[in-house]
Amino acid sequence: MTGTTTHEVAPSAARLTGSLRDIGYDFPTAVADLVDNSIAAGASRINVFTHFEPNGSYVLISDDGAGMSESELIEALRFGTRRTYATNELGRFGLGLKTGSFSQCRRLTVVTRTSMKQRVIRVMTLDLNRIAKTDRWDITANETSPAIDRAKAILRESPGTVVVWEDLDRVLPERYAENGWGRRRLRSLASKTAEHLAMVFHRFIAGDVPGRTEVIICVDEEKLRPWDPFAPGEVERKVLPEQVFEVDTMEGTSEVRFRGVVLPARDRFSSIEEFERLSGPLKWNRQQGLYVYRANRLVQHGGWSGLRGIDEHMKLARAAIDFDTDLDEAFQINVAKMSVDLPPAVRKMLERPVQELCVLADDAYRRSANSGGRSPSATKASRVSETALRDVSIAIKAAMLEGNSLPEFRAAMERLREHNPDLARLLNL
Ligand SMILES: Nc1ncnc2c1ncn2[C@@H]1O[C@H](COP(=O)(O)OP(=O)(O)OP(=O)(O)O)[C@@H](O)[C@H]1O
Ligand SMILES: [Mg+2]
Question: Which ligand has its closest atom nearest to the C-alpha of 91?
Answer without folding.
Answer: 1
